[in-house]
Design a protein that fits this description.
It contains 7 helices and 16 strands. The chain is an alpha+beta fold. Strand 3 (about 35-40) and strand 4 (about 45-50) form a beta hairpin. The longest helix has 21 residues, at about 135-155.
Length: about 280
């Protein structure tokens, strides 16, 4: 079950070499035969374009349904850029799609969201009903924004600060988010439900291969310890900026109870669904 879009060159045939050269120069793409597969490991978003060797005027686009809403948000500009580069027309056969155009980001998202909602309904109405992991749409949007821009923020910060990914793990009623904070390092710290703190084991040679331990700390406890640091309203993160960790911060990190994370509880980004959409079909 997927969103399918067909792109056509009206003026001149688009060669396979042109297709491959275009995508080989773009971030997150892997060329495999006649397919250009997009995978952003920071956001978890993936989709593909496929060149039709039997019809060199045609490229197919495919994006799976039953995915968090931000899959469409990340895919839409990629489709728009390809259309602009080669002056392509479109065929959107979705029930609420754009038809034969014109293409627009808004039209793409309207078509994708309608199809994705139908995908939720179809999957959640099936028997046996699959296990689901959900998170509120507004928070999923914030997390996607952070992860999508994380690379550029890290590049801007350089080696002076660590910019973590926001990741997901299983929870009781909904998924939980977490970030990793290694060794009280300077960090751009976004909000997450939990923080996995990496610290040195007490009484163990800090230079040994087995000197680190991992413990989970709730966000409320972390925020109380970092609230004195500047908060970037636009980026929505605390900026912990220092040459070496202050003693007060070290004392906090060293004092929190040891609660090792369960590595089997991690969730892939594509499996964390929009809570509001899932609730429609419960």
């Amino acid at each position: 079950m997927s969103f399918d879009l067909f792109l056509n060159s009206e003026r001149s045939p688009l060669t396979e070499n042109q297709f491959k050269e275009y995508f080989s120069e773009r971030d997150h793409y892997t060329i495999d035969g006649s397919q250009a597969f997009y995978e952003n490991r920071d956001t978890g978003v993936y989709f593909y374009f496929e060149y039709d060797a039997d019809d060199p005027n045609s490229i197919a686009f495919n994006l799976n349904y039953f995915r968090p809403h931000f899959f469409g948000i990340e895919a839409a500009p990629e489709v728009a850029d390809l259309i602009l580069e080669f002056d392509l027309s479109i065929d959107d056969p979705q029930a609420e799609g754009m038809g034969d155009g014109p293409f627009s980001i808004e039209g793409f998202l309207r078509s994708w969201n309608a199809g994705n909602r139908f995908g939720y309904k179809a999957v959640l109405s099936s028997e046996p009903r699959p296990e689901t992991h959900v998170y509120p749409t507004q928070e999923l949007q914030r997390i996607w924004n952070w992860n999508f821009n994380r690379y550029h923020l890290q590049d801007k910060a350089g080696e002076d600060h660590f910019v973590p990914l926001i990741m997901f793990t299983k929870g009781h009623n909904q998924a939980r988010t977490y970030i990793v904070w290694p060794h009280t390092c300077p960090i751009y710290m976004p909000k997450a439900d939990d923080v996995v703190v990496i610290r040195k084991k007490p009484g163990v040679d800090p230079d040994s291969n087995n000197s680190d331990e991992f413990t989970i700390v709730n966000w409320n406890d972390i925020e109380s310890a970092v609230a004195e640091y500047p908060f970037d309203e636009k980026g929505e993160f605390y900026r912990l900026d220092y040459g070496s960790p202050p003693r007060s911060l070290m004392n906090f990190v060293e004092s929190v109870p040891l609660v090792p994370p369960d590595r089997e509880m991690g969730l892939a980004n594509d499996s964390v669904l929009n809570a509001e959409l899932v609730s429609e079909f419960e």
